[in-house]
């Protein structure tokens, strides 16, 4: 009997020891897994923190060296070329939005807060931007300093020709490769469009702009950037001499008497959308001197809505379709 009891005690003791060993192994395994997961979380957190804190060095157009976020997530842009940012999928949270939104912005401005014009600092502050791009730094020299108290602020020149402007955006936002691909695509589309027109060598065009009672001749900016592009129309000598070759001049007020001097083989007439401008444009197009122009006699006059007086990237995507439409209607 004693032997039997002794054997049972030994058996139970062995069983208990086995349970303790298994429990210890399980505990060690769980601790190891938990520690591994915790280490992974810490590593991921460290990587995200490093990404959010990474910056790039940038020299502004005013010669200042600044550090800017490598991947900004909340950009405020103060300027009129918001279409560039939209076309490049840049996360803009605030802009001085246009009052009369052009058709090419339809559905594209949702979620962007209007910061007003002039820009309201309190509104910008509530948006918590990590980068501000200021296209009005020349108009208000003090604005840049005030904006810099909110977030890193870059002075920017939106009046540059679109190729230079977009390349500069690529430098600011570290998107040089994306910009190069985008400009290459535009160059291809422009070439294909103008090849269909079968222009003769030296065939010219002029862009006029009717604003109220004042008539302007435009240079190679805005719509002119497409008209006079590498693959486009030739520039009339008077436009070249009096506008394009003059530093700081992108358009020129003209009287009807000098129209023959500036008019090319094709005439694009941009009309501001208000009653005075439209009435004055109608008068111009019916005037005797207008009727003497060779382009008018040949039916090569194209009246263009004011919203297309731009060279922002979002508009340019559609201009390669619009331009042939205008010309086919004549």
Count every beta strand, where a strand is a DSSP E run of 2 or more residues. 12
Helical run tally: 13
**CATH top level assignment of the largest domain:** Alpha Beta
| Rg over CA atoms | 32 Å
Major beta sheet, specifics? 5 strands, parallel
Strands side by side in the biggest sheet: 5-4-3-6-7
Mean pLDDT: 85
Count of structural domains: 2
Shape type: elongated
CATH architecture verdict of the largest domain: 3-Layer(aba) Sandwich
Uncertain segments: 1-13, 15-23, 27-31, 41-52
Backbone structural class: alpha/beta
Element order, helices and strands? HEEEHEEHEHEHHEEHHEHEHHHEH
CATH fold-type name of the largest domain: Rossmann fold
| Residues in helix, % | 40-55%
Strand content: 15-25%
- Assigned CATH superfamily of the largest domain: Nitrogenase molybdenum iron protein domain
Distance between the termini: 120 Å
Biased composition (Basic and acidic residues): 34-51
Organism: Lysinibacillus capsici
Membrane topology: Lipid-anchor
Keywords: Signal, Transport
What does the model show?
By secondary structure, the chain is of the alpha/beta class. It has two domains: 57-174, 3-Layer(aba) Sandwich (Rossmann fold); 199-328, Rossmann fold. Helices cover 48% and strands 16% of the residues. It is built from 13 helices and twelve strands. Strands 5-4-3-6-7 form a five-stranded parallel β-sheet. It has a five-stranded mixed β-sheet with strand order 10-9-8-11-12. The protein is elongated, with a radius of gyration of 32 Å. The protein starts with a helix and ends with a helix. Its main location: membrane. InterPro entries: ABC_transptr_periplasmic_BD, Bact_iron-sidero_bind. Pfam families: Peripla_BP_2 (PF01497).
